[in-house]
Amino acid sequence: MADALGVLSVGSLAQINSGEQLESMVLQCVQIKPMASQQGQERYRVVMNDSLNRVMHEGKLIKGTLVRVKQYQVNFVKDKNILIILDLDVMEEFSEQKLGQPIALGNPEADVKPQPGNISGDNMYGKQQPAKALPSRTNGATTNGSSHGTIHPIESLSPYAHRWTIKARCTHKGDIKTWHNKNGEGKLFSANFLDDSGEIRATGFNDAVDQWYEVLQEGNVYYISSPCKVQLAKKQFSNLNNDYELTFERDTQIEKAEDMDGVPQVRYNFTSLADLQTVEKDNTIDVIGVLQEVGEVGEIVGKTSSKPYSKRELTLVDNTGYNVRLTVWGKIAQDFDAPQDSVIAFKGLKVSDFGGRSLSLLSSGTMNVDPDIDEAYKLKGWYDGSGRNEQFQSHANTMSAVMASGAGDRNAYKTIAQVRDENLGMGDETDWFSTKATIIYVKQDNIAYPACLSEGCNKKTVEVDPGQWRCEKCDKTFDRPDYRYIMSVNVSDHTGQMWLSCFNDVGVQIMGVPANDMMALRDEGEERKVTEAFAEANCKTFVFKCKAKMDTFQDQQRVRYQVQYANPLNFSLESKKLADLIQKYSISDNNSLFM
């Protein structure tokens, strides 16, 4: 062991990483992984060209051996230094286990560019290769005794990989979805696949739905072989930790694997309930906890689709002393029958700031009751021992005494930060508040709708023919509509920003002209005047009297802040409010903050 350590060129990789050139160096082979086949080239990680692969086939280069690197090249690809070995000698007499405690190298400083050393001009690796715009994948394959040949790990797949086969478990299969738009109609489904290297999402369209939807079953293992398109993942549709996703093609090969050994059932990356406050809103995470409460199944109607959705709220706790509210939807909500006090692992939860922090199971997410994993056994042991008698806290923000003093007052004067910190609108009742804020942006699309001319109606009309506007409620047709504002404005104060919904009367105050006049300018092509009107609306300051109420949009709950009145600043009243605040906080000339 000591002799081998003495032979190693200690620190040489750090020198190369910093841009230095070395004549030769002695390294230990710690790990060997073949790479996915690309255009027939045989490569290994660390990369070797064909002339050096003989040491692999002859069994000379094995894990633990030392090698003397005689020629190499360093390529800087995607913010990483890649060491490409062009020539080496295997020092068989120093076959050892891992020497010392090697650590991963960090990236060199931004201004240090790695230089190629001892490059052979005749070798294909002797030319500097351009960095790819897409992330590189360099994990390798294993040889399979069956007719499928080499099996590649999921993490090795990239748009540059060709002629590959993966062996993976189907961990989730979504429902068939249909679409209809101006370009036609179609259908699709998506499924998630897992092996011991990672996960990937695959989608089939139209004919692929008919071909593969019934074939793929959750829990089974499959061989999937190219041709199958590998492309950048659409993160808005996937909760997996993978930069790429698959699209089934006409000639994609899928075959059920009879041997399912060695393929994991599921892969989790758990976040504790105590750490939820550090997770950004709308991020996707995995959570495991003990089921403390189960709510009744309820139903909401989607705002845009007008379709009913089933929902059920659960309460989870864990051994960090926190609880969290979690919502499940659709069939999972309807069929939920997990007993109280059971341990449940959730994969694919969306984080919301509702109530401080809450969770929602995505349609692509999964739920596993009493899973056979170490984390579940630990939680069960803790809960049965002492956990069930503990008191748990939530991430709901607590109100300060000053904030609480205005609670319940319909005219309570709040900053934007106070509105959010006090969770206004998140209860069953509507909350009211007033805030002084400045308009920083007015959303310019869909600022008005064509309303009915009948007194007291204000319902939207539809143009059935040119110059014929019909109101279904009144069963009347008019030669023109009465346009009314329905606007979204972004406002700001010294504590933050928020979006407010404004209707016609408030819209007139903000824009300075009726909605009919504004729409007439657009119809007449007076875009310059329209732009000027919006520019004038910006930077206006009002005292907005608002109501806050929970709303459901695209299966997600959020608070909507709706303006009831908008009053221009009354400087006399504002001065009085400031004087009252100074008196309330007992600030005088003698203890001024500016002293």
UniProtKB/TrEMBL annotation:
Q: Name one Pfam family in it.
A: Rep-A_N
Q: Which residues form the Replication protein A OB domain?
A: 273-370
The record's annotation in InterPro entries points to: Euk_RPA1_DBD_C, NA-bd_OB-fold, Rep_factor-A_C, Rep_factor-A_N, REPA_OB_2, Rfa1
Segments forming domain Replication factor-A protein 1 N-terminal:
8-92
| Single annotated GO MF | single-stranded DNA binding
Kindly report the protein's main subcellular placement as a broad class: nucleus
Residue ranges occupied by any Replication factor A C-terminal domain in the UniProt entry: 432-578
Q: Which domain of life is it from?
A: Eukaryota
**Where does the UniProt annotation locate this protein?**
Nucleus
| Keywords of this entry | DNA replication, DNA-binding, Metal-binding, Nucleus, Zinc, Zinc-finger
Its biological purpose is as follows: As part of the replication protein A (RPA/RP-A), a single-stranded DNA-binding heterotrimeric complex, may play an essential role in DNA replication, recombination and repair. Binds and stabilizes single-stranded DNA intermediates, preventing complementary DNA reannealing and recruiting different proteins involved in DNA metabolism.
Protein family membership: Belongs to the replication factor A protein 1 family.
How this chain assembles, per its entry, is:
Component of the heterotrimeric canonical replication protein A complex (RPA).
Instruction: From the Swiss-Prot or TrEMBL record, give the protein name.
Output: Replication protein A subunit
Lineage, broadest ranks:
Eukaryota, Fungi, Dikarya, Ascomycota, Pezizomycotina
